[in-house]
Amino acid sequence: MWEDPGECKEDILMNTTNQAELFQPGCVLKICAPMVRYSKLAFRMLVRKYDCDLCFTPMIIAADFVRSVKARDSEFTTSKADRPLIVQFAAKDPLILANAATIVAPFANGIDLNCGCPQRWAVSDGYGACLINNPELVRDMVRQVRNQVCIPEFSTSIKIRIHRDIRATVDLCRKAESAGVSWITVHGRTTEERHQPVHYDAIKTVKESVSIPVVANGDIRSLRDVEDIHLLTGVDGVMAARGLLANPAMFAGSEDTPLECVWDWVDIAMKHGTPFTCFHHHLMYMLEKITSQQEKKVFNSLSSTAGVIDYLLENYSVCRTLSFLLSL
What we know:
There is one protein chain. By secondary structure, this protein is α/β, with parallel strands linked by helices. The chain is about 45% helix and about 10% strand. It has an eight-stranded parallel β-barrel with strand order 1-2-4-5-6-7-8-9, surrounded by six helices. Helix 3 links the parallel strand 1 (about 30) and strand 2. Helix 3 (about 40-50) runs antiparallel to helix 13 and helix 6 packs parallel to helix 8 (about 135-150).
């Protein structure tokens, strides 16, 4: 489950971070959200270079993870530098979730239960956002993980969407808190909402209703948004997804993706053997705001890693470091 052949299992086991170290009074924890296909090891290493405090893996189906070694090897890779790290699972059975948590516990700082994915397949299978309507099951899953994983610093968190009636959301969060949940991330939209404005008032209500840390999620696209949402809601952390895809240096204060960050991605992706489609798609997101329509058309049509690097060298080589050129 670890990628760097120069690291040993014992090195990774020693790297632990507890909740008190993550959530510091007066500070806002900046978090990279779980993103299917995108928040994998290489991208996590990129955003960590630009002031991201905590990263989540993409959502992993716990039942598949527990059942299949192949699933574990393909869905979860990490390294000593990939810390602190939360592994997010989709689950609907307390024992399966706890078993998955036990497997990753030596290699991560915590697990998160996805209670917010609104996709039809997830909800129809009993995963994701449908869990917000079953607070007793969420409570039982949290409790089972807390009882089974015997590492005091290991966190168990949940990521939720809100109900139309905020009282139901508060009830869910309080039940999770009573079961020992470490913190709660609140995406400020209902299961039915997609691009509607985020209900920051609901996030504030949740924050005021529990005594554990609360993280805000939804439409965070700049460092100014981080500061404004913290002041508006009083949350302990913020989590970004699309904002970081478009600008991995967002948490460091960059308004758009700096070219240095683009080249950092090339370096990191090559080092980690990132598949071309993923490598290319990340660059499409990063270059979105700094390229013309014609440039996008040309760049998006490229079909090989070599072609992408040649294009970048031709158009953006002025900010390229010599180290990459020497490695070609």
